[in-house]
Amino acid sequence: MRSWRRDAAIALGCGALGFAAVAGIRIARDGGGDAARTNPRVALSDLAEARDRSREVIFDTVEGELPGPPAPTPHTAVDTFLRAETIRDYDASFGLLSAADRADVGSHAEWELVHGELPTLSGFELGATRVDGSRAEVDSRVTYEATLDETRGLVPARARATWVAVQEDGGWRVAHAESSLEPEYLDEQGAVQAAEQWVSARRACQARGEYAGGLVGSRRPVDALCRAKGRAKGPVLTGAVGRLDPAAGVEPFLAAFGPEVLSWARVVPVTDPAPLAVVLAPVGEQWLVVGALESSPEGSS
Length: 301
Known about the structure:
Blueprint: H1 2-7, E1 25-28, E2 39-42, H2 44-49, H3 56-60, H4 74-86, H5 90-95, H6 99-105, H7 108-115, E3 121-132, E4 135-144, E5 147-149, E6 153-155, E7 158-168, E8 171-174, E9 180-184, H8 190-203, E10 216-217, H9 220-227, E11 237-238, H10 251-257, H11 261-264, E12 266-272, E13 276-283, E14 286-293
Parallel strand pairs: 10-14
Antiparallel strand pairs: 1-2, 3-4, 4-7, 5-6, 7-8, 7-9, 11-12, 12-13, 13-14
């Protein structure tokens, strides 16, 4: 389940990829396109494949339970679903899932269980609704409890989500697996200032502005900063911020945070007081240093 949880790093709307509340969200990669536009997507089918089979007997006893009543409109379906996710009423949100999603999830019990490993939806605001026959899309902005860890990966504070609703049972239900979202990250230029402040602290042999789970990557350049403390009053010289280069020894970052790290991480090359590349993550409203590399990989902007 660990790898699935990492792929599901950003669940929508507290129950799904509304990054916020859902059942299993993964980052849909665009096959080499603009990494900044990587689109996290709720994938309940992944959840079904990743179930803990040792629990299957328990869940099989409640599969087939009846859903709640459908909503009269697509807007109401999404609004009610997200409200339920926000207040952790997972029975209600499960009852509004489409038939395909409920089949993938399995049961009310399993729906609630997986929420313990998913991002937490804290708020939402609905936008335009587009209806095309028996299918509709509802735009929204959602907020999450921003976190970074090795289970969920990076959960952004904000995202734009497109929720899909489908006609079923004489009304509308949320097709969570078809919904998608686009994270909104901090301005990457803020990473440069954060890196400079971190380097200044580290060369004074202090740890500030960094990932609480421990730095990832190479320790040698980090230790070299402390050895350079005699130059603590000199300026920190940095280059242009970029992205992680997959060919630049980033395996420790991939192992810690999953492949999505290539989308959200930023790299600031440092030439003085010691050569290294500082790797940062946009966590909540600040850039945190998550690790370092020996050299300064050239990231594309």
